[in-house]
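Researcher: Next sequence.
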Amino acid sequence: MHIYEQAQGPDHPDTAMALNNLAELYGAQGKYDHAELLYQRALKIREQVLGPEHLDTAQSLNNLALLYYSQGKHSQAEPLFNRALQIVEAALEREHPSLATILDNLAGLYEAQGKYAQAEPLYLRSLKIMEQALGPEHPDTAQSLNDLAGLYIAQGKYDQAEALHQRALQRMEKLLGPEHPYVAILRRNIAELQARAKASKKKHRGKRAKKTKKR
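Model: Next structure:
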């Protein structure tokens, strides 16, 4: 870090990049306070040197938002995700994968807060971009399918979730082969989902039967 500061100066974009990378390391180690300070410093450099609408600024906003999100600081993460989204939407094509990534991050934040109605259109938009930009069989597209499925599971919409998992399974089997560990995970997820759906339907039938008896 000191090498970059001495060679390039404390406010150079390369210094911001080094700060960002070191912050990622601290974040992965659970040193959130250290990571936050470095992310904030990198963001300040990029805003001042590159401008508030630069894509690198959007990256810093997204990274800092992810750090807050990982700590459950949702109110601090949301405005940063939204700022990053506005920058990327203005700077990139509507089908760019970077846009899909931020949409997915913001959707995950809303899902974590139980704001399912706000999360769903973002997940759907992210999935559409991934399918168009990377193709239906790309691993990132499969991840988008799984993220949307997770939202439906959280709402008890098991049939919709299973349909998405099945799509992901078909694509990953074709891409990775039927014996790949990721394919095995998808199969297990589907089996667990089917069991939960069956249990939910049985419980629902039981409740209806009780109501009928009360009459």
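Model: DSSP finds ten helices and no strands in the chain. The domain at 104-203 is CATH 1.25.40.10 (Serine Threonine Protein Phosphatase 5, Tetratricopeptide repeat).
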